[in-house]
Amino acid sequence: MSISDTALQQRVVKLGKHACARARDSKVYQLPLWPEPTRGIPNPVLRGALFAAVQGKNRAVFQRELLACQKGLQIRFTGIQLDQSDLDVWEQGLHLARLHPLGTRCEFSVYSFLKALGRKTGKSEHEWLKNSFARLMGCGVELTDQLEHKTYGGSLLEFMRDDLSGLYVVIFNPKILTFYDGGWTAIDWQDRQRLRGKPLALWLHGYLASHAKPYPIKIDTIRAFSGSNNKQIEGFKRSLVSALNELQKIGFILSFDFEGDTVIINKPPTPSQQRFLFSQ
Q1: Residue 206, class by beta-carbon neighbours within 10 Å (0-12 exposed, 13-18 middle, 19+ buried)?
Q2: C-beta separation of 171 from 157 below 8 A
Q3: pTM (2 decimals)?
Q4: Is the CB of residue 142 less than 8 Å from the CB of residue 75?
Q5: What is the domain count for the chain?
Q6: What is the H or E stretch that residue 265 is in?
Q7: 202: domain range?
């Protein structure tokens, strides 16, 4: 084989490697395709204080703050504190994006988005949505799975807006799938609509939904995981009782009881959770 033939062969091999690398890079990443009446939310998001049970007017500002969350996870947060209404916006954005490859454009009208959230569509609601998208884009989240030793670092979404047409374009980083590695839960969207305006009930709904059979949990642990700014344990317990009553009212939980500083919650499992429990 001549020198020129050898050089040509090496170049062909090199081009082949580049083509393989491009093929790997062009892999399509997509969210799970959960059904329409639900919203698929990563369990790590539901089991900590990333979307806190606070009123929007009482937001804190954090710089790499270590947020309370379930064992095995670590969440550091930079930015304006997110609340349960921001989770509604993020959930709906993910719901629309699940039909598109991650990293590509997902387009919708502000009117349709607000209607899906069960909100009015006037000017004040448009401004509210702008502020929520700004918080979700402007934050920095470091989510670490301490068992897998993997960390996602970045904002929760990117967006573009056309104020003349009222159209939004939302883009989710494909690495957002790291959140789903720890499992995800199909949240009943109608339940969340019925609990709107009740931050602690909303947080508990997500947290409990992510467990097939919730274990007894200390009141102070719920206070920490939910990001509550209620510093008095007795005051928080009253809020907790009220929130649990709301969950019982909509049929999400069957009953609850307190034993000292611990609350025991009886929640019926979903069909898929029943299958999981049966397999254990």
Answers
A1: buried
A2: yes
A3: 0.88
A4: yes
A5: 1
A6: strand 262-266
A7: 38-279
Percentage of the chain exceeding pLDDT 70 = 91
Structure-token pair, residue 129: 């949505």
Tokens 């969210």, residue located = 31
Alpha-carbon gap, residue 50 to 69, rounded angstroms: 8
Closest CA to 163 of 110, 112, 205: 110
CA 234 to chain centre: 29
- Chain centroid to Cα 250, Å, comes to 22
Q: Is residue 83 within 8 Å of residue 57, measured between CB atoms? A: no
Within-domain flag for 159: yes
Torsion, Cα of 237, 242, 244, 249 (10° steps): 170
Binned at pLDDT 50, 70 and 90, residue 15 comes out as very low
Is 6 within a domain? no
Q: Which of 120, 81, 95 is nearest to 39 (CA)?
A: 95
Question: Six-digit token pair at 80?
Answer: 């304006």
